């Protein structure tokens, strides 16, 4: 292999794929990044068996070929190269990668490219495309609600359900649930899978184009892949049955509240300063007289209270929540005003955007003694 | 105590003094910040016995008084307050601090203010003043060379020597030495003390005014204080004898080199990527043919080389250094070009600014087998 490519493009591609390089790889080869030069394309791959990331850049290829090199040093070296371009060269027998840029020359020991578990394009039984801005919104509004407890795998991912022309993503850690759906003009197909939050975070991280582009999704029984721009990302799916969350969403609420999203978020964040040291990070909300009275207390620290104006329709109610569960959803609400739906002090409440029923967040209250 | 002050000013003052609040305080009271309201001034103090930091802001004082409150929560709460102003109130018998800003009200448990070891103005036996930009330069060009090894305390601080009209600051970890001096129009006095690097770092951190202001320095046999703007900082001095470093500075050099500071720094940083995993982080420099050939190698990783242009006057020489010791000094050289002085491969070398002999950096080479 002998190629020349742009340094910044290579740096960016490495930064993307390197996120799949495990710090403690299961086998040594997984600490490597695989490169393949063919035609006018340099392809970079990294995988930790759970997810696989592939990036492609243009390159001037004198001799096609492949190589695998330790991800950490390769990434650091390329990032610090002085020139605009980078030359990479590797001969099969030498076991060395030559890197050249302006007046700097590096050699890095290579790994056996034949050992690298290369990522193959997934042959799915359902293929469809979603605009990246829509997919981003589906992920952003749900993935934060996933559990991090690996003991119960189904809760560590987002449920993706496609039913004809409707795509629904949902996540729950059993104490809160976030559901976002999108409807399309035409039928897409039918699937129901659980996608690990990790690959969804990678997607969020990389879907940043200003111009909406198509993300091609392919699904098999145990794998999913996402293809857009010059990136290809795959992940195993989570086995198991996602709970039937639809029964958790209350059909109606006794008390309807509207309040300013940013003011509510800032006040909850502030008042929860006192609650954070506690086990449940509990804040109390009292809805009455068109105000929300937010309080918290910790006998060892002190207490906090604040009133914010709200539009309240229905009976007064006092209810307590884990402050983090409120902060998390308010960060993902895009409308200036948010809606809160309440029934009883121990019944699940809802938080939603002002005029959009395609996104609903359900949170279970905390029982308090005060 | 009952006062009102500006929220941002209080936040800034807290941010400054909180750096003296130990995360693991020797006694509980040291986790607190002490506040005293008097006249039109609110004074904030924190100390860990080694250093003491005092900041003063203007306040509208309804009732003068003092209080001590846990530093961590107080700082977080004030920073997140919603209003422009903050009201603080505390009654001696209540053991509670009331904090109010716009619609937010907090109470925090207070500590016993009488227990706080308040910082008293130091009565030194030498008082003098230096412009902050000059003091900043003295510190910046030496403090990085201190040792962090607490087993040999004298090397963990900077030597400050005042002899008539000359102020010299020096630091060494025994492998490298950095010395910077300044001459004044008039005599200042005579002292020789070792100042802990910690307080010098605090000074660097806070001396950021664009307009040169006087820093008043007061020295006793075991304490030093710095006073500027609305800040007062004290520190114990390090006991012991700073080594007579003047003998370490070679009187002349056989080979004189001039090179571009930024290009040299970038190349050393880059080439040392390969060396960093080694024990001594060793890079080799070969000075010949008006070029510096920088190389490093690690049998387990690979190797690196780069040529940078230089003006070389004197015999060719190959010499090896701990790359970090070169990177550290180049960061603190302000001139576009730097000078390197060399004798033998195992003799100390010097690195200096282009036309300024008031700053000299001496570094001991590393013995290599290649």
TrEMBL record, chains A, B:
It is found in: Cytoplasm. The keyword Transmembrane does not apply. Pfam families: DNA_pol3_beta, DNA_pol3_beta_2, DNA_pol3_beta_3. One of its GO terms (biological process) is DNA strand elongation involved in DNA replication. GO terms for molecular function: 3'-5' exonuclease activity; DNA binding; DNA-directed DNA polymerase activity. Residues 248-367 form the DNA polymerase III beta sliding clamp C-terminal domain. GO terms for cellular component: cytoplasm; DNA polymerase III complex. InterPro entries: DNA_clamp_sf, DNA_polIII_beta, DNA_polIII_beta_C, DNA_polIII_beta_cen, DNA_polIII_beta_N. Its main location: cytoplasm. The keyword DNA-binding applies. It comes from the Bacteria. Coiled coil: none annotated. CDD domains: beta_clamp (cd00140). Keywords: Cytoplasm, DNA replication, DNA-binding, DNA-directed DNA polymerase, Nucleotidyltransferase, Transferase. SMART domains: POL3Bc. Residues 1-119 form the DNA polymerase III beta sliding clamp N-terminal domain. Residues 130-244 form the DNA polymerase III beta sliding clamp central domain. NCBIfam families: dnan (TIGR00663). Belongs to the beta sliding clamp family. Forms a ring-shaped head-to-tail homodimer around DNA. Confers DNA tethering and processivity to DNA polymerases and other proteins. Acts as a clamp, forming a ring around DNA (a reaction catalyzed by the clamp-loading complex) which diffuses in an ATP-independent manner freely and bidirectionally along dsDNA. Initially characterized for its ability to contact the catalytic subunit of DNA polymerase III (Pol III), a complex, multichain enzyme responsible for most of the replicative synthesis in bacteria; Pol III exhibits 3'-5' exonuclease proofreading activity. This is Beta sliding clamp. The gene is dnaN.
């Amino acid at each position: 292999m002998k190629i020349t490519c742009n340094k910044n493009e290579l740096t960016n591609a490495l930064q993307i794929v390197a996120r799949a390089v495990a710090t403690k790889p299961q086998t040594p080869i997984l600490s490597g990044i695989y490169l393949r030069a063919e035609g006018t394309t340099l392809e970079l791959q990294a995988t930790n068996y759970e997810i696989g990331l592939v990036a492609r850049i243009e390159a001037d290829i004198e001799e096609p070929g492949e190589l695998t090199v330790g991800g950490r040093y390769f990434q650091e070296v390329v990032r610090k190269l002085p020139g605009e371009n980078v030359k990479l060269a590797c001969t099969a027998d030498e076991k060395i990668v030559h890197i050249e840029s302006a007046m700097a020359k590096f050699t890095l020991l290579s790994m056996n490219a034949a050992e690298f578990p290369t990522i193959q394009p997934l042959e799915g039984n359902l293929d469809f495309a979603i605009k990246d801005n829509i997919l981003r919104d589906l992920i952003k509004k749900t993935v934060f609600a996933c559990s991090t407890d690996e003991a119960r795998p189904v809760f560590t991912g987002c449920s993706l359900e496609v039913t004809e022309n409707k795509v629904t993503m949902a996540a729950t850690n059993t104490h809160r649930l976030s559901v976002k759906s999108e409807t399309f003009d035409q039928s897409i197909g039918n699937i129901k899978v659980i996608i690990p939050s990790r690959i969804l975070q990678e997607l969020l991280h990389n879907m940043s184009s200003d111009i909406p582009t198509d993300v091609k999704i392919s699904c098999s029984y145990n794998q999913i892949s996402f293809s857009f721009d010059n990136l290809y990302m795959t992940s195993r799916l989570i086995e198991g049955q996602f709970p039937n969350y639809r029964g958790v969403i209350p059909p109606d609420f006794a008390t309807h509240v509207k309040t300013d999203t940013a003011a509510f978020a800032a006040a909850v964040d502030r008042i929860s300063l006192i609650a954070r040291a506690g086990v449940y990070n509990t804040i109390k909300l009292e809805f009455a007289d068109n105000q929300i009275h937010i309080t918290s207390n910790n006998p060892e620290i002190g207490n906090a209270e604040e009133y914010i104006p709200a539009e309240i329709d229905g009976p007064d109610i006092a209810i307590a929540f884990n402050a983090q569960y409120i902060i998390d959803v308010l960060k993902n609400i895009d409308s200036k005003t948010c809606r809160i739906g309440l029934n009883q002090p121990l019944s699940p409440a809802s938080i939603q955007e002002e005029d959009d029923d395609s996104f609903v967040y359900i949170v279970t209250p905390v029982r308090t003694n005060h």
